């Protein structure tokens, strides 16, 4: 049977907070960088078990690469596929190495420990939703470009994501997708001289095509 994608819902991923988006098995999530260049810390948790989550380590080990591409199956901490990487219109890569920013990382930069950060936003979002707060795994840093030199050193580069670029993912199990626009502005990963910004999300459902 032929299928098509139809719009189910859409909304904002506001800056300054973490958003938790339910995504049922078979549904697609499109994350749209509508203003361009904004980096998004992204996690996925099994809705039935917050101890199972999208694992950068498992993905890198199974796929045997540092950067994921459309067509890849992304694995959980238990080693099973939970997401399919469907599409990517952005010109850059999506970092899989860097931990979520936290108070310690801002202190190391000489900034206040009270600086907004993705780790605190993550914990606050789960607590406010009345859920147990899981440990913070390494995120998939969508639209974040961290070049790797031949000697293995990392560097920062402003995101090359253009306004309207998006990443599309398909859930293989019921998931909670957790998204935090990174508040880092002193290191211009989200654009030189640009303050932190929000993004947009769209969920799509597979429906039978007319006449199929």
Descriptive keywords:
212 residues; mainly beta; five-stranded antiparallel beta sheet; 3 helices; 34% strand; globular
Notes on the protein architecture:
The protein is mainly β. It has one domain (3-146, 155-208). It is built from 3 helices and 11 strands.
Topology:
Elements: E1 3-13, E2 19-23, E3 28-33, E4 40-46, E5 49-53, H1 56-63, E6 73-75, E7 81-88, H2 103-108, H3 118-128, E8 140-142, E9 165-171, E10 175-181, E11 199-208
Antiparallel strand pairs: 1-11, 2-10, 3-9, 3-11, 4-5, 4-8, 4-10, 6-7, 7-9
In short:
With 212 residues, the chain is mainly beta.
Give the structural class. Answer: mainly beta
Task: Note the main sheet.
Answer: 6 strands, antiparallel
What's the N-to-C terminus distance?
A: 6 Å
Shape: globular
How many whole angstroms does the radius of gyration measure? 17 Å
Identify low-pLDDT runs: none
**Residue share in helices?**
10-25%
Question: What is the number of E strands?
Answer: 11
Order of helices and strands: EEEEEHEEHHEEEE
Strand order of the largest sheet: 1-11-3-9-7-6
Overall pLDDT, averaged? 95
Q: Quickly count the helices.
A: 3
What is the count of structural domains? 1
């Amino acid at each position: 049977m032929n299928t098509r994608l139809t719009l189910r819902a859409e909304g904002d991923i506001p800056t300054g907070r973490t958003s938790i988006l339910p995504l049922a098995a078979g549904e697609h999530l499109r994350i749209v960088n509508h203003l361009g260049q904004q980096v998004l810390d992204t996690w996925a948790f099994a809705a039935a078990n917050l101890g199972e989550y999208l694992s950068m380590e498992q993905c890198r080990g199974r796929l045997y690469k540092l950067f994921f591409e459309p067509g890849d199956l992304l694995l959980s901490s238990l080693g099973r596929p939970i997401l399919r990487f469907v599409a990517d219109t952005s010109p850059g890569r999506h970092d899989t190495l860097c931990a979520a920013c936290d108070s310690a990382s801002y202190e190391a930069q000489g900034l206040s420990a009270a600086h907004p950060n993705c780790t605190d936003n993550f914990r606050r979002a789960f607590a406010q939703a009345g859920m147990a707060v899981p440990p913070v795994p390494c995120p998939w840093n969508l639209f974040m470009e961290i070049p790797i030199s031949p000697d293995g050193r990392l560097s920062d580069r402003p995101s090359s994501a253009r306004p309207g670029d998006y990443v599309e993912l398909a859930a293989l199990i019921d998931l909670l997708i957790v998204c935090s626009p990174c508040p880092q502005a002193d290191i211009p990963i989200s654009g030189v001289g640009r303050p932190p910004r929000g993004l947009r999300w769209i969920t799509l459902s597979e429906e039978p095509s007319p006449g199929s």
